[in-house]
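Researcher: I'd like a structural prediction for the single chain below. Treat it as a standalone chain; there are no partners to consider.
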Amino acid sequence: MTEALSVKASTLSVYLGILTRAGLIQQTRHGRSLRYGIDLALTGSLIEYLVNDCCRGRPELVARLSSSRNHSGIGRDGKVFNVLFVCTGNSTRSIFAEAILNAEGATRFRAFSAGTRPSASLKPLAEEVLRLNGHDASLYYPKSYDAFYEASAPRMDFVFTVCDRAANEECPPLMGQPVTAHWGMADPSKTEGTAAERALVFKQCFATMERRLKAFTSLPFSSLSQLSLQRELDYIGKMPERVNSI
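Model: Treating it as a single chain, here is the predicted structure.
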């Protein structure tokens, strides 16, 4: 064991003693030898606890934290970040996010959007809200998330899911280990009521996404640690949806 782990016998003895007292390994004597065996059930429970408690059930964070523990921030000053917004149909919420971020952070961010089951076209009320807010609606259309697995696709720095259904989809991870967060929002197209009430909900959806993205673009990326950045992104995703009266 000392040869395999490249540690001194005295150091190894201390480590084994700690693990034995913790119950993670078991010690048995065979003649003059001591044999150690791992308690798989208890060790599995410990790993499950650490993942759920430290990483909020997202083990992919561990790789990013360990690979960047000697760095103060996610990127250098002046870096342009690629950001992908994902929902199911890619016909309203993720499109709003793509349009807003490309306008708000054009020099620091490149925004993209996609759907796990993309619709045939944008929702008419989504197009109207884009135009009312000064965006060229003709530039935006539903796209498949699968396109971002291709070798020619840009590597993402951030991936945000903006609907619960997309967040629960079994999507293979993208290349590059992007930072992920869930910014769930209600689907405005599911709203029932008068034309004015439905139009208002779409406007509220846009306003909420705009507020979240302004908070996102104001983050000091070069000075935030990975864990601090993740906390900030999760906090932004919990901002309440804006509600206005008619």
